[in-house]
Write the structure tokens for this entry.
Amino acid sequence: MPVRYTDIREEHMAVREAVGIFDTTHMSRFFVSGPQVVDFLQTLTTNNVAKLGLNEGHYATCLNEKGGIHDDLMIYRIGEMEFIWITNASNGPKIKSHLIANAKRFKVVVEDRSKDVVMIAVQGPNALELLSKMAGLDARALPRFSCNSVKLAGHDCYLCRTGYTGEEGGEVLLLNTPFNDAGKKKAIAFWEEILKQGKDFGVKPCGLGARDSTRLEAGLVLYGHELDENTTPLEARISYAVKFKVAPHYIGYDALSKQKEAGVTKTRIGLVMVDKGIPREQYPVLINGEKIGMVTSGGMSPVLDCGIAMAYVKPESAKEGDTVEIDIKGRVRKAKVTGWPFYDPQKYGENRAR
Amino acid sequence: MSKGAKGTKVIDGLYYTKEHEWAKVQGDMVIVGITDYAQNALHEITFVEIKEPGTDVTAGEECGLVESMKASSDVFSPVSGQIAEVNTALDDAPEIVNQDPYGKGWMCKIKCSNPKQDLKKLMDSKAYSAFIVSK
């Protein structure tokens, strides 16, 4: 995926106002199956795996013993005893080793199908219309987070009703598309077909720049920025990915339960610039000149037309509505603490007024 | 090798830094901006901030910031001196730097006591063209 096909801002606004497509094939996809697959996945992830019905999915984290995050991921149940685990590209090898090491204790098979499945995200207010047209079914009738076997443009796919932009849409797994000349040809033809069928919907190919700016504007966390081995899901405020009434307990459960009782030592906040300037990763966040934390992701919001950021600060040091300062390379600039998404959810995003 | 190098403009008579600033002598002033190569690499410039007039700057040191949709990038002063004027037109329309990097997109004027000495250390258009092609 290139940083941009045309302009980041243009691609970003296509996602917010029409539909954008992202080639996310670089991510890792593991197919996990076997009689003990539910217990296996529950041992490794923080959401309630047993609760997933057939063709349902959810967001989860995979923790280390200390409750720090190995990775964040999507899990989909595609069979009674078969699941798909989709994980960040940068963490692919780490997660693969982790899965294989832990699989020894369970009757499960872990299959890395990253190089056999192409993945394309179709995102935006027109995304479901486009997917419906391609699939010959009403994609809007498919529940959020579902994962269904469908034919798109005649090809076997899984259509996941998920995404990473804050908008409606789906993530398409184009099956049987190996990493060779024939597979490449098929993948390109499929990509071109989406662009062709999406023309009337205002579709645009989108790059890494727009992927980052759309997820930031939606307030979604990114591994390596908001999440890492020293940050827990409670600190990241993604508690929807975490359940405590689960059996067996997952790796990191005890540490996390303890933190739930004792409280966190840092917490994620959103920031919107009041003064001019663009907050960037690692810029200090101050209150009355005293450092309270650090920016983990920042950039320009095309919708708000100003700088926005996510940061970690000491708990209770700043609440929504407070004014803080960001040290932008020696220039101290005011920003307001906010929640997310950063855009007006009445106007943008999947819950917009229609 | 870089696609950006091809087709990006380099103007004769200007001086160039390795950080892709250009400098143009005008009396005892040196006008400073970023090159076509730099604006092309940054793309979609969203914000330009140069230190205030009156600030002393040193050759090779940071004198401002350019933000694009993609990244944040420092502007390094090609010469030592004092900032005399900042292009305030860029406050509301930073995209001018993308459109006209060597003209309306200039960033500041630096009053320089000994411009020749500093400029001697910079590249001319020929050397800079070779430099960006090698990138």
